[in-house]
Specification:
Elements (H helix, E strand, L loop, with lengths): L6 H8 L7 H7 L8 E4 L3 E5 L9 E5 L11 H22 L3 E5 L16 E6 L7 H5 L8 H8 L4
Antiparallel strand pairs: 1-2, 2-3, 3-5, 4-5
Length: 157
């Protein structure tokens, strides 16, 4: 029998969930690399998802703690989706995905893990990137570590 190790997953399972909004907390700290912040714009920022669905799973979020798209100003919306576009361009150039899932989950009932701070997920996809592991073992196999992905994407957005 072969073993697939995903040691980062245990950290997610065992750690208490944050009591404050990480999309407010992380950009307020002065540790972009440690917090996986790849880019800071005027109104939004780009952060690698610490528990990604695939390598290169990014999130774009406004600095303001707002729960819905309707709460974003016109300038925030324009900056937000301009940044989403820049992220897809950078990911295409660096990781060469075959496609993307781009999505926004607004509210806990819609699947939002961070349900009071609107953000957009950008998930690169490749042919064959899904397998039996999430179904039978509740484990996702990722072929690249966060530090490697961060280093490849830093400065590209």
């Amino acid at each position: 029998m072969e073993h697939l190790w995903a040691p980062w997953r245990m950290e997610f399972i065992l750690n208490d969930k944050p009591t404050q909004c990480i999309l407010c907390q992380k950009p307020a700290e002065n540790d972009d690399e440690g917090n996986l912040i790849l880019h800071r714009g005027k109104l939004n920022f780009v952060i690698l998802n610490k528990y990604p669905y695939n390598p290169g799973h990014l999130m774009v979020a406004p600095y303001r703690h707002i729960p819905t798209l309707e709460d974003m100003s016109d300038d925030e919306i324009l900056d937000h989706f301009t940044m989403v576009r820049k992220c897809t361009k950078a990911l295409r150039g660096v990781l060469e995905p075959a496609g993307f899932n781009i999505g926004i989950n607004l509210g806990k009932i819609a699947g939002a893990g961070i349900d009071n701070h609107a953000h957009t997920h950008i998930v690169p996809r490749w042919s064959g990137d899904t397998n039996f592991m999430p179904v039978v073992a509740d484990t996702r196999v990722l072929p690249e570590g966060l530090a490697s992905t961060y280093a490849k994407l830093k400065g590209m957005i």
